[in-house]
Amino acid sequence: MKNKELLRKIKAVFSANIVIMIFGVLNGIILPKYLSIDSYAQIKTYQLIYAFIGLLHFGTADAIQIKYGGVLFDRICDEEFAKEIASYRTLFLIEELLLLIVSFFSRDFIIIALASTVLFSNIISCYKILFQAIGMVERYSVVTLGIGTIKFLENVICIFVLGSDDYHLLIVLYVFTDVIICAFLELSMPFVKIRTINLCADAILQGVQIGGPILIGNVIVNLLTSIDRWFVKIARNNVEFAFYSFAVSIEQLLVVLFKPFQISLYSYFCRNKESESKIRNICSFIFLGGAILCSSIFPIKWVVTNYIEKYTNALNVMIILFATIIPCGIINSFYINLYKVYECPKKYFYRNVTVVIIAILLDFIVYITVNNLIFYAWATFAVSIIWYVLSIYDFKQFMPAKSECIAEALSIGMFIVISMNFSGITGVVAYLSMVAVLNSKTIKKLSKSIREED
Fold this sequence. Notes:
By secondary structure, this protein is mostly helical. The protein has helices at 3-34, 37-53, 60-68, 78-106, 109-116, 118-134, 137-161, 167-188, 191-194, 201-235, 238-255, 259-271, 276-293, 297-307, 315-322, 325-341, 345-368, 373-394, 402-421, 424-438, 440-453.
């Protein structure tokens, strides 16, 4: 795949994610402003657990990525893939029925809602991973944009049209979104028409065997990105959980913008794995993009201070979490793809186990000592840096130059200092000027690469 083709695909996903981020920003303002703190906390509890429901495919979805990575769509055997996805569909249906039975005994509304979406959310995951593996980023963008658009409209209708503060209604609508998107994917692709149900144990076991190590790694990644919220949920009250979740939700809006790299780079790396210089430069460009994205903290601070005053206590937590965007963005879009492309599932697994143990230890230390939201955020920041350093160590051939490492460290440090002490235009100008000075070499490389493509 040529660099020009890669840039086209990145732009396609990036454009969709810009729209999604806009919806996310609006949701980030609407939900905390118009919902009670308790209702907002319940919504965030549902979303916290939902991230793990999407992993009940037991690695079968990840097997699709490994098996079809870099393959063109017209070279996929419809009959073969239809049998595979039918087997997975049957597995998810059985899981959903079993979990629904168990959840009804719990009489917990959130648990029942989560059980109701097992089939639909995992089918969506399978198709999204297929689109990522074969480079169909436009189709991936349509699905992602559809989910974001429908959920935004549901929030608007529920709050402004119906005037409801009921989290039960919103969660039911979120489940309905999964049903709609799943039906769209199934009907727009040929596979469900070829084979709907197919309980083939061999296909399922093969999928689990191939994708199992990646799935475990993804479970650990989910833990890494949520372990602080689990500690806050358990150790602090509902109000503080709402504050911390609000800070996390705003930070994750920017993380979404790394998706174009994560989606497009897997296929690109599969076809260019021998070109170390190209891959190394991409890492530098991702860092620069992450550093620039962090400047959005200044307008966000202004919005929170002026329009969502009840969440101003979350601002310092938000700043610290924003500092994790750069290392986590590089890990998720660059290094996780490298683990897959260079077939290092065991290394990926053991590395993530190491990091999650460190995360649990740091959060536990915070819990037994200060038990404060700010320190949970600092623990999360420390884990992101440790994780980034270990990833660099695992792929020494792509290690940044010493000058770039220094520039990265200073950029992150200056972001924290400036965002803690400045606001508005002053903060934006001061921070971006510092980023431009510290990363001048990377900016020159990026400009040269763009000119060469033109």
